[in-house]
Amino acid sequence: MNGANGFCIEPIDLNQFAGKDGRIYGYKGLKIEVWLNCVSFQAYADIVYESSSDCGKGITDLNQILQSIFGESLIENKNDFLQMFSADNDLLRHVVPLGEVVHCEASGEKTISFENHSEKGACSEEDQIVVMDMGSMHVKELYNHLVPFLLLLVEGSSPIDLDDPKWEMLLIVKKKVDGSGNTHHRLLGFATIYSFYHYPDTSRLRIGQVLVLPPYQGKGYGRHLLEAVNTIAVSRNMFDITIEEPSEHLQNIRDCMDTIRLLTFAPLKTILSSLFSRLKEERPQNSSIAFKYFPPKSLVGEVRKELKIYKKQFLQCWEVLLFLGFYKISASTEIFRAWLAAKVEAETFDRGEISAMKKCVIDVQNECGHDKTFVMVRFEGEVSPEIETGVLQKDESGERERKEEMEKFIEGRLKEIKAISEKVSLHCENLGIPISVA
């Protein structure tokens, strides 16, 4: 509906929004086209179907489904929707000036059109990231109109509480000043962050939602949003940064970004240099590395303090850094795989404790007379012969299943680390950052 400025996204299954059983009933040849206005961020739905009939399960109320997704941003009349493209309804024009600019760079993107604006002279474009609190009526209105993007494009997402003053929103926009001096904005993506108390006298920053709109994905805007969050956390001296249930893709972006930051962190570079010098000399066998090559506790604290990377995230990046170093030294992943297996084993089980305990199943009866009721228990030390030959049975398959699950996890994690290390190497090459971990 908006010519060259329009874009399409992949079809989305709306069944997930259709009540308890997640199914739409009563329609043949149903097709719903939803148009979203990039100026007012309001929506219009065009519903087409061949026929409808009640086949015993009723006819689903499609308007109710659409209202549950789009709320007040859904406009029923098509002509009213088209009128919302006027400059008077430009939400970004009211919202962007309310925020604080935390990132700004000249735009290299030439594919975004700002047609219908007069261009009498030269134009300038730049990408900006602004952060703002949710107190303004215009900011709340914009966020409410962006919620449908979250519901449709981010699995398991839900709106934030706009009445909680600790929520903030980051917008990444393309700002253009035309030849007449008029400013226009195009929304590329957004994120929400939340500050919460950390004992005794600091605050942590949690990333609640991150979404880059479909036509701008794969261009680095998601990374820019995360970098802006880092800038905010450092400037406010937050304790650290966490992400609420990140998708696999978002976590991979963060792993790449934080690994690159760590490669330029002087204290870590010194420790890695020493560690890999020792590795070259020792050439350890797989069985001898179980408790080697873990980061010092002091480094974990220093990384958190200076870079705001919390412990779990740092340890994931540490795996990537070690992979880069191990592979550079031995041109093989064998030693690293052995180290990763030892690490997972150490994190999951205390082997000394496990070897001293036995898992047994006790058949018990209850008042209902069920003959398949049981209790599973662990015994520390030796189990008496009377117990072993009585109602207890050893769980012989448990150890085997545990090992199979661990092997599966290690192989999956190794695949992830390889992919991240390749991206890190490519980014470092493009940015001119030397990977001097070995």
TrEMBL record:
Record-annotated N-acetyltransferase domain positions: 137-350
Gene Ontology annotations of biological process type: subtelomeric heterochromatin formation
GO cellular component term of the entry, any: nucleus
Pfam families documented for this protein: Acetyltransf_1 (PF00583), Hat1_N (PF10394)
Organism superkingdom: Eukaryota
GO MF annotation, one: histone H4 acetyltransferase activity
Entry protein name: histone acetyltransferase
Natural source organism: Amborella trichopoda
Species classification: Eukaryota, Viridiplantae, Streptophyta, Embryophyta, Tracheophyta
